[in-house]
Amino acid sequence: MAKINRLSGCTDWIDLDFVERQRTPEPAMKLGIQLQLAGLSLSNTVSILEEVGVERSRKAIHGWVQKADLQPSEGRNPNHVAVDETVIRVNDQQFWLYAAADPDTNELLHLRLFSTTTTALTEIFLRELRHKHDIESAVFLVDGAQHLQTALARAGLRFQTERNGNRNAIERIFREFKRRTSSFSNCFSHVLPETAENWLQAFATWLKTKHYRERTATPVRAFAVRLHATGCSLRETTTILAELGVERTHQSVWQWVHRLADSVSDPPSAQPTRVAVDETAVRINGVLSWVYAAIDLDSKVLLGVHHLYSI
Questions:
Q1: pTM strictly above 0.85
Q2: Separation CA 106–CA 128 (nearest Å)
Q3: Which residues contact 20 (CB under 8 A, 6 or more apart)?
Q4: Pseudo-torsion of CA 171, 173, 176, 182, nearest 10°?
Q5: Which residue, 39, 134, 235, 269, is most buried by CB atoms nearer than 10 A?
Q6: d(CA 227, CA 48)
């Protein structure tokens, strides 16, 4: 369990009130939700959980994300609101993702998925946004889309046309949506539109967490370390990360490995009845050194931390 907590970090933003039977430890469920939202496929998330001793199916992890019902926070009072829409495909059908963000904090305020884009649907979106947040005195930043301007005028909300500047907040958020959904071809397959919308809201909630404010999310770093530890070269590890939309250097991955190793506590004390001790020679930068190890023969647990001594 300590290993799971070390990988998942802060998880206060995930509410597991939906859990009825404690079949899976809560830290493992929270880690699975984070891994999936952070960029890993369901299959890779299953693999990581197996590494920490939790075996669950892809369907189970998908269910955790859906049932957690993660939603952007309410009750904000923004000075500016950037509004825009972009296309998302669900089962090869085109849908429009509406989103509103506070450009001063880069926080997503509200999002909805509609089958088309019209003035009437934009008015529905604005009513929902008004219900969640105090936007009466806010200035809305929009592009040249006429349906947005018409809906805002009918709602009595102030707006101004701006294609850059503060509107970059909503563009950054849409880039993150595109990056994450590109791992499944920017298309939700075999799901209802409501399911896709629920996942997007959960992803939006993750965007504003500590893990997103880090340059690379903790679960993604942990996944990279796991890849390297299980035999992938630094080049192979960075290639896999790139496929997930995470561009990092060999040096970054190498540093993650060492930082995680430094953060791991010493092994628990043990009272083995049989201990095997041995050493082997390795070359580091052409210099021959010895690696010493002590192992409990009964449990196969490594008792001593590896030490290198130059000859």
A1: no
A2: 19
A3: none
A4: -70
A5: 39
A6: 10
